[in-house]
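Subject: design request, 252 residues
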């Protein structure tokens, strides 16, 4: 795999290139100290992934990633930065991962592995859209992989999202709006500004006073989950449940 490393600070770029060369999946490293050089190298072809700083003169890393998103075949992008507060914007642009400086070799290796897996899935022909997405959740230096198929509903938590599964909940640095778009074809529907639900688990809807609740299948002996439905989402939810029976979604 050929990787392009981009950073305007020479010591940081040298360190990133050094650590990437130590990864067995990386065959070649190309480097750029600004977005203009990076774009020239990308347009020359042969780049399989980009590891990209954010704060750079001229086009910054987020702006460069926005340009790459318009490529016919955008390369996977991993952001490498000292700033925690740009993660939401990075994942909105489709980032594969978001690494914080100073870099840890094991964390970089995990990012490379994700890129390799993403490229392998993209190169594997499939008659149907892949519905087996796995969401990496990092907590205390440990990365847990949560299959989308285990997610029952999603709750907005500021600029984060909390994934609720049968075994617990997981906080991820992805806005709920991004998951709404990415998971629409997999049977997830936004029912409220704070909630996204898996349609196969919906057992019904009920009216309480002037409000509407959506009911989800319980886990074992747990009580059913009931979530509020906003007025503007209520009609869409009812239409989807009537027009597309739950068996249709479970067959995806």
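Subject: RE: design request

Done. Sequence follows.
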């Amino acid at each position: 795999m050929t990787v392009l490393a981009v950073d305007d600070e020479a010591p940081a770029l040298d360190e990133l290139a050094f650590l990437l060369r130590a990864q067995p999946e990386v065959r070649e490293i190309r480097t750029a100290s600004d977005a203009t050089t990076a774009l020239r190298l990308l347009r020359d072809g042969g780049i399989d992934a980009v590891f990209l700083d954010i704060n750079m003169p001229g086009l910054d890393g987020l702006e460069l990633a926005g340009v790459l998103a318009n490529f016919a075949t955008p390369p996977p992008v991993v952001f490498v930065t000292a700033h925690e507060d740009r993660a939401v914007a990075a994942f909105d642009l489709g980032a594969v991962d978001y690494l914080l400086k100073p870099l840890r070799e094991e964390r970089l290796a995990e990012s490379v592995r994700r890129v390799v897996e993403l490229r392998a899935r993209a190169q594997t022909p499939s008659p149907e859209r892949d519905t087996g997405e796995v969401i990496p959740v990092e907590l205390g230096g440990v990365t847990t992989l949560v299959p989308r198929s285990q997610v029952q509903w999603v709750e907005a938590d500021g600029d984060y999202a909390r994934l609720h599964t049968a075994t617990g909940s997981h906080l991820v640095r992805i806005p709920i709006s991004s998951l709404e778009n990415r998971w629409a074809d997999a049977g997830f529907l936004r029912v409220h500004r704070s909630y996204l639900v898996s349609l196969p688990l919906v057992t019904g809807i009920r009216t309480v006073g002037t409000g509407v609740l959506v009911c989800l299948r319980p886990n074992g002996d747990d009580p059913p989950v009931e979530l509020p439905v906003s007025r503007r989402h209520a009609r869409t939810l009812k239409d989807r449940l009537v027009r597309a029976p739950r068996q249709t979604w479970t067959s995806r």
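DSSP finds eight helices and 15 strands in the chain.
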